[in-house]
Write a structure and sequence with these properties.
Blueprint lengths: L3 H27 L12 H7 L4 E2 L2 E2 H17 L2 H30 L4 H24 L21
Antiparallel strand pairs: 1-2
């Protein structure tokens, strides 16, 4: 099991990647554009033009921005409250991503690579935050040792 420090770093990097993906789509859409699929596919345009690209008038990329930013905040929050909050938020994000991916495959019948990239990042975030909860919930979180390592050993250490 990786140290919690490494899991938190991985989660933070994934959040930043997700913010980049969602931010890029949000900026493109806010400017009146349509996210372009690399390689010339029309899947992104088809998904963007569908009624599922917005929920109550808000583009789904904005929900992604809020979600990734919230998970990043929870990732930076030490101890059990941060672990649980990051886990619950990433669980919700994972479920929402599954729903949107289902819509792409079976309702819209088009695939947006930006949506799939975001869903992949959210899935990895859910896995990392699940590992944090399973491996470190209930352990006293102490400040890192002077050498920067986590003082709390992983399970089986």
């Amino acid at each position: 099991m990786p140290s919690e420090r490494h899991l938190r770093i991985a989660a933070a990097v994934l959040c930043l990647l997700g913010l980049g993906i969602a931010g890029s789509v949000a900026i493109t859409v806010a400017g009146g554009g349509i996210p372009q699929c690399v390689g010339g596919s029309t899947g992104c345009a088809t998904v963007e033009k569908s009624k599922y690209s917005e929920i109550i008038g808000i583009h789904v990329s904005v929900f992604g921005l809020v979600g990734y930013a919230s998970i990043l905040g929870a990732t930076l929050w030490r101890g059990d409250p941060g672990r649980i909050t990051a886990f619950v938020l990433s669980l919700f994000g994972f479920g929402f991503s599954l729903y949107l991916t289902y819509l792409e495959f079976f309702v819209i019948e088009a695939i947006c690579q930006w949506c799939i990239a975001s869903a992949t990042v959210m899935t990895l975030l859910f896995a990392v935050n699940t590992a944090r909860v399973l491996g470190y919930f209930g352990l006293d979180q102490q400040p890192p040792d002077q050498d920067g390592t986590d003082p709390v050993p992983g399970p089986g250490s």
